[in-house]
């Protein structure tokens, strides 16, 4: 049934690449709300090495993941198979936010596929635990296709609107934690 892995080997990478979506979970250190977000667009996730993964974080309705990572770095990513081969893969780790104005962003960006409008950041995660589970109770679903709605929406937005959101609705989490607010630097304990 469940198994723990020392690193992301070839079969695990193939499983990750075959999934059309993944889920991201974070939480503040004390109180506040646990955040769980579904993520789509298969070309927005990349395995960087045996113990490091990254994904493109696109502008959306909230900024909880970024604020939680800034505060404590804790993150879990889950891949769940909806096909005949049942499996759940969880990647537990420590994440950090790399914004487009960070010099590292340019190199990280080359790990992803198509250009998506509205890229807010790259989330880089150093894996501390890699484990799977059977997924026997997960129902079967068929993928019809990726939704183009977010890309279409972002493509119509002027760059100034994204810049305004950094200090606006993406400046803080729903619990009031700093997120993209440029006046609140990332604490040293979550920097790498």
Mean pLDDT: 88
The shape is globular
What is the CATH level 1 assignment? Mainly Beta
Helix content: 10-25%
> SSE order in H/E notation?
EHEEEEHEEHEHH
Total of domains:
1
CATH topology: Pnp Oxidase, Chain A
Strand content: 25-35%
Rg, alpha carbons? 17 Å
- CATH homologous superfamily title: Electron Transport, Fmn-binding Protein, Chain A
CATH architecture: Roll
Low-confidence stretches: 188-192
Structure annotation, total helices: 5
From the helix content, strand content and strand pairing, which structural class follows? Answer: alpha+beta
Largest sheet: 8 strands, antiparallel
Briefly summarize what is shown.
The chain has helices at 10-18, 64-71, 104-109, 149-155, 159-167, and strands spanning 3-5, 22-26, 35-39, 45-49, 52-58, 74-80, 88-98, 119-133. The protein has 192 residues and is of the alpha+beta class.
């Amino acid at each position: 049934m469940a198994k723990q892995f020392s690193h992301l080997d070839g079969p695990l990478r193939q499983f990750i690449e075959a999934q059309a979506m993944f889920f991201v979970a974070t939480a503040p250190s004390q109180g506040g709300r646990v955040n769980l977000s579904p993520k789509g667009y298969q070309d927005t996730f990349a395995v960087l090495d045996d113990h490091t993964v990254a994904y493109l974080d696109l502008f959306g309705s909230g900024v909880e993941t970024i604020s939680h990572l800034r505060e404590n770095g804790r993150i879990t990513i889950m891949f769940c198979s909806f096909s005949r081969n049942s499996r759940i893969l969880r990647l537990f780790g420590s994440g950090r936010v790399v914004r487009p104005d960070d010099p590292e962003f340019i190199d990280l960006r080359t790990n992803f596929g198509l250009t998506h409008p509205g890229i807010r950041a790259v989330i880089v995660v150093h894996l501390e635990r890699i484990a799977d589970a059977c997924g026997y109770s997960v129902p079967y679903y068929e993928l019809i296709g990726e939704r183009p709605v977010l890309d279409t929406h972002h493509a119509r937005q002027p760059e100034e609107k994204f810049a305004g959101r950094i200090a606006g609705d993406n400046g803080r989490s729903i619990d009031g934690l700093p997120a993209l607010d440029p006046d609140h630097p990332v604490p040293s304990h979550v920097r790498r």
